[in-house]
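Format notes (please read before filing issues)

Several people have asked whether sequences and structure tokens are stored in separate files. They are not. Every record keeps both together, in the order shown below: the sequence lines, then the token lines. Line labels are part of the format and must not be stripped during preprocessing.
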Amino acid sequence: MGIVTSPAGGPAGGSEPLLSVRNLSVEFRTDGAPVQAVRDMSFDLYSGEILGLVGESGSGKSVSMSTLLRLNPSPPAKITGGSVWFMGADLLTVPERQLRRVRGQEIAMIFQDPTMSFNPVQTIGSQISEAMRVHDRGVSRRNARLRTIELLDLVGVPSPKVRYGQFPHEYSGGMRQRAMIAMALANKPKLLIADEPTTALDVTVQAQILETLQEIQRETNLSIILITHDMGIIAEVADRVLVMYAGKVVETAEVEPIFDAPLHPYTRGLLASLPRLDASVGDLPSIPGQPPNLNPPPAGCAFHPRCELSQHRERCRTELPDLVHADGRQHDVACHFFTELRVPAPVAGEER
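Then the structure lines:
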């Protein structure tokens, strides 16, 4: 498959990517055939870039990102191929001891449910302070406490000195998510992986969390991989987008080309279901059918049973499409007939 890269030099102007993933494949061993959760995934990420990783549940978003830090339990998970280059080392082959220094220090991760990420019998402040001291034994307890209070204030937790000594159940959902961001930033990482960071939060709090992430990114030149199923969030915060379906990257480009002229039928379906203020109110379009069973994955293009463009063409049913450059703007797509889609994407509420 083709290598997916940012425009020359990357958004921040750096010549070398911070992270290079090449041909990553992951499967889960079951009683039957292995489930191929991630299939031949490649991309680059540059310093200061926000990369949106989007797709339906089960498309391989979270599995692929947790694999970068080898967080999936083995068994049942097994990395069957690929490499993950970060700061000159392949994270898939380095010793566990070296990888522990990367986790939480150079690369931090925000998980979907902050409630499950905190120990319920320890205060929020003590847990964030502990995260600092694990990676830097030279930090005193006093300085770790002061730094934690600064971080809680940075991410918008009110009365941070008081909140330092409170337990997770004394925080609201939005504040727990903010505290999770504070913990992730404790060791000034170069890369932050945010896995559905606004799940189960109301719209107002969601907007505040996203604004906080953007402000921190601008101030620190932090690179962020944002995992979500919400194209609206991608439009608001991301620089570049990777669209995943059935464990594979099916389209990638900068945000503007993806929204203006998506080239994969699946991406067009996701965008068509996004409500628009400038369109009439009506039933939102949906993608018919269900994602395929990856035990094993279907032959040909995994999306073809749900694809209006396929129309039961034999090539779609039998030949797996490569991810290829569609034009000179680093717009890549895995579709045999993408040239038939060089028209504006449908809009929710408009006649199709």
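For reference, the curators noted about this record: The longest helix spans residues 203-220. The chain has two domains: 48-73+95-106+190-352, 119-188.
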